[in-house]
Amino acid sequence: MAEASRVLQTALVSNFNSFQRTHFSQLNPVSFRRNPVHCSVSTSENTKTTVTQTIPWGCEMDSSENASALQKWLSQSGLPPQKMAIEKVNVGERGLVALKNIRKGEKLLFVPPTLVISAESEWSIAEAGKVLKQNSVPDWPFLATYLISEASIMESSRWSNYISALPRQPYSLLYWTREELDRYLEASQIRERAIERITNVVGTYNDLRLRIFSKYPDLFPEEVFNLDTFKWSFGILFSRLVRLPSMGDKFALVPWADMMNHSCEVETFLDYDKSSQGVVFTTDRPYQPGEQVFISYGKKSNGELLLSYGFVPKEGTNPGDSVELSVSLSKSDECYKQKLEALRKHGLQASQCYPIRVTGWPLELMAYAYLAVSPPSMSGQFEEMAAAASNKINTNKELRYPDIEEEALQFILDSCESSISKYNKFLQQSGSLDLDVTSPKQLNRRLFLKQLAVDLCTSERRILFRAQYILRRRLRDIRSGELKGLKLFTGLRNFFK
Ligand SMILES: C[S@@+](CC[C@H](N)C(=O)[O-])C[C@H]1O[C@@H](n2cnc3c(N)ncnc32)[C@H](O)[C@@H]1O
What we know:
two-stranded antiparallel sheet, 9% strand, three-stranded antiparallel beta sheet, 11 strands, binds S-adenosylmethionine, Rubisco_LSMT_subst-bd, [ribulose-bisphosphate carboxylase]-lysine N-methyltransferase activity, 44% helix, 497 residues, methyltransferase, Rubisco_LSMT_MeTrfase_plant, mainly alpha, set domain protein methyltransferase, domain 2, protein-lysine N-methyltransferase activity
């Protein structure tokens, strides 16, 4: 979970461009009974789809029966006795709860490598795995295909108990329709990230279909390997895949460990422990019997947590929270072309996003603001401003241009205020938003999504309010300092007169 989703952005579609076209000999027909999923959605316009087929495997997010079966199977398959059990919980629906007193600094879990799913895991349908390997499919799409392949053969897969305990519909923005994203997340930049991610998943599936699946329909029938099943498997990877630093940053699904929910108040994460030869984590606080035990999915903003995991922490509880502020060059700026050229040279666009935290904003944003407000007389500095805005210069030295500092701060303040007004609009309207649904199930879903959006927008706006307060105070100080300077100057001039 921690860190894994960030890597996907680069690992997905781009790697497919380097696929080699290979010819294969005829493969043996598959003898497993498969469970088809009929896909009725258009692949090219996925971000606009409203229909998602139900996946025939997995369970409801809160199913404790499937979780008990998983727990039993894991113990029989080599998971050592645990100090925790899967239970229904208040935070995260199902989670691991302490059965005994757990000390701070204690190692827990010890999931052996035989119970870990990675790109090296054995395929029940060996030929399918061989084809993907021959085509050098990167880890994420490889694992997504593996998961579907194992899920589709049900009890014939050694992972069937694990897959049966996975949610049938993971809570992530992958499952929001374009209409829902537009309606509820209009004010937040996370909407763009979700659209980009959905596009990546669709692109990845289409690439696999074109290059591999269509050539081996016996191994990868479309009733099983389609956009709905890929959305599910990517949803599972986004919300459960971990990167194990001590195993050379290997990506893995770790059954049992992935029943642990996230808390912003803990900093401990999963890793492979060479001495005990298992996946463990070390507690950074004590737990009493009955208490839910948490790990950290990484220092993520509330928006990122919603994007990959489908939840928003309670307002003010996430110290790693941030909001993306969008800033743009003014098209009416007489140096627009020159400034844009300087930005492009450093891989930036006319519009950029920078993260704002309660503690402040990055130096890169200030550099961008200097560039945006600088007059033609400063064209000699455009280049260094753009470089600093892109963070390509490996220095933490703050650029300072005292003559235009006030304008630069005002520029950031204006951008914050324009963003705040979008949040205000959404939050004011949210009470009266037409949910526009016909069935009670749909109504529940819409209410749930709306609440998530309200929680996210409230927390993002809160950070912007804080930035607005700091910026206004700084500007007031600069202006009153200037005024004092002016008064002193006039006083001295009068004196000498
Ligand atoms: C790795 S799984 C954890 C196990 C999961 N609760 C289950 O029952 O399968 C991650 C998912 O758990 C839920 N989750 C984790 N931490 C949470 C939290 N702090 N608040 C709400 N939901 C959480 C989210 O649905 C997330 O997508």
